[in-house]
Amino acid sequence: MSVDTETVLKIANLSRIAISEEEAERLKPELNAILGWVEQLGEVDTDGVEPMAMVIANRTRMRDDVVTDGSDTGGNRRDDILANAPLAEHGFFAVPKVIE
Amino acid sequence: MSGLTDLGVADIRDGLRTKEFSAREVAEAFNAAVDGADALNAFIVKTPEKALEAAEAADKVLADGTAGPLAGVPLGIKDLFCTRDVPSTACSDILTDFTPPYESTVTANLFGAGAGMLGKLNMDQFAMGSSNETSARGNVTSPWRRNDGGNAPLSPGGSSGGSSAAVAAHLCPAATGTDTGGSIRQPAAFTGITGMKPTYGRCSRWGIIAFASSLDQAGPMARSVKDSAILLESMASFDPKDSTSLDEPVPHWEGALNADLKGKKIGIPSEYRVDNMPGEIDTLWQQGAEWLKDAGAEIVDVSLPHTKYALPAYYIIAPAEASANLSRYDGVRYGLRETPDNGSLAEMYAATRAAGFGDEVKKRIMIGTYVLSVGHYDAYYTQAQKVRTLIAQDFEKAWDQCDVLLTPTAPSAAFALGDLSDDPLAMYLNDVFAVPASLAGLPAIAVPGGLDGQGLPLGLQVVGKALDEQGVFDVGLALEERSGFTARAEKWW
Fold first, then answer.
1. Each residue of B415-442: pLDDT tens digit?
2. How many domains does chain B contain in total?
3. Active site residue: B131, B155, B163, B183, which one?
4. Least Cα separation, residue A36 to chain B (angstroms)
5. How many CB pairs (< 8 A) connect A and B?
6. CATH annotation of A5-42
7. pLDDT score for B352
8. Is residue B40 part of a domain?
9. Can you give the CATH number for the domain in which B73 is found?
């Protein structure tokens, strides 16, 4: 299966990456080369094979139902965390207006 | 004291205890080496004060007998590791100036053991690349040059290219790397050093900037098997903050190192003999088998029939996971923000990501988005995960016949910067021998084996059973003892 320019633009939009039509034209053969190459997986007989879900056997652990936001994971460190934000106001992350 | 920079991790640790030198002298020598190597572009952030601070602390605890196992050992840290108060950018523009208010578990373990930090190491952007040419901080140039007098700048491999160049050039005794599909092992092979990817889950992923979470593993890059074992002992730990961390005791690998392989069976997988592989690599591979026979092992032929499908499966699974992981870079909480005039929130996301991601990263996000999209998910992603199961089963069957596998690390020696940048599929093929072990989560080490006709290092890879790092280290040590690899790049930088 190969992608056309319109599909490249659609994928870019789904990926939230702004691209121009020219860039989409440039990307099209590159994406098609990779997609064409990975399609060889179709020749493998996978009837009855379970898709990999966990590469090394491990158990899902339960943890105690307590607050774990310690000094390393954010507890009482609002200002430290906002310090990396491109825009922070009144103790919150700020973004362009979303409701007119 | 320039001789100090030729010391490895064990040499420094032991010399500090016998008071041959102080930790401060070691840190000063490596700080000077880092400062004198700007031409390699391996270190993108230098932290000499951190190295000195750790050294002074080490000298104190060494005197009072409470020193940790890495006290006084200065390390280079790949820029994928979040380090508290030191910029951590994955060598991307989108994380320019990102300064974590926390420390990754692996670096916290290393610093807790007494290690210091010389600085942050260059890498392929978000660990996506095999040549260190996708970094937003510029290429790393390998310290190695061909012996043809041409001085073409060579790739140090990738994605841990700053780590491999720095260790090979003796700018640090060892460095951290991460390996998603060969990013520790291929650069180790290209630069004549040792690199170990442990079993998936041995090292916590917490605080390591995520690429493909079911594959990402941290590991050591050093100049010997012993140094790699020492470092991994401190890096590995069970960490409740990483849901795939393994709740297993960390063995004392260094203490148990044993190059006597009597009773061990080494598998040679026939499918790793690929088209267009240089004869010198095949010869080294056979030589490696002879070395292991000499160490007492028995060589057996094995088959891993799905090997050829590992790389295409990887280039579905890794981009799929990357497209999800990298969705967090939206210009809201950290990093770059680009807002078009009167732009909406959605336009801000798209403009930010267009400006902040490099071409290779964008391409992989888009591939990942496509293979996960409605209508394509089963044909691409589910099929790739089924093939991944078959690849893991191939290894399981091989373990009925042998204890570890011996293969080449990479299908070529280092190539010149720029040689493969226009041919993504040729670039991806660099990891053809590394990716199967990644998909199966298995421990694998790259050790240098010899030089090719152009004077460049070639590596051998040992792949072991899950959690059998010891078996992998032992076979690596047997190879190291017999190859007698002492070649190093002549200093030109």
1. 999 999 889 899 999 999 999 999 999 9
2. 1
3. B183
4. 10
5. 169
6. 1.10.20
7. 98
8. yes
9. 3.90.1300.10
B427 domain residue, yes or no:
no
Instruction: Locate B184 and state its tokens.
Output: 């520790």
Q: What is the interface pTM, i.e. ipTM, of the complex? A: 0.94
Question: Would you say B126 and B92 are in contact if contact means Cβ atoms under 8 Å apart?
Answer: yes
- Give the percent of chain B with pLDDT over 90: 96
Q: Which of residues 80-99 of A touch B (CB under 8 A)?
A: 80-81, 83-87, 93, 95-96, 98
What part of B 215-244 touches A (C-beta under 8 Å)? 240-241, 243-244
Substitution target from B94, B203, B357, B369 for chain A, most A beta carbons within 10 A:
B369
Active site residue B159: yes
B223-261 pLDDT tens trace = 999 999 999 999 999 999 999 999 999 999 999 999 999
The answer as to whether B358 is a domain residue is: no
Query: Does residue B286 sit within a domain?
Result: no
Within chain A, how many helices (H) and strands (E) appear? Answer: 3, 2
Domain housing B240: 2-263+468-483
B117 forms bridges with which residues in the sheet? B75
3-state SS string over B42-104? CEEEECHHHHHHHHHHHHHHHHHCCCCCCCCCEEEEECCECECCECCCCCCCCCCCCCCCCCC
- Confirm whether pTM is higher than 0.95: yes
Q: Tell me: pLDDT of B1 over 50.
A: no
Instruction: Please indicate whether residue B78 is annotated as part of the active site.
Output: yes
Q: For residues B29 and B70, what is the distance between their CA atoms, to the nearest angstrom? A: 17
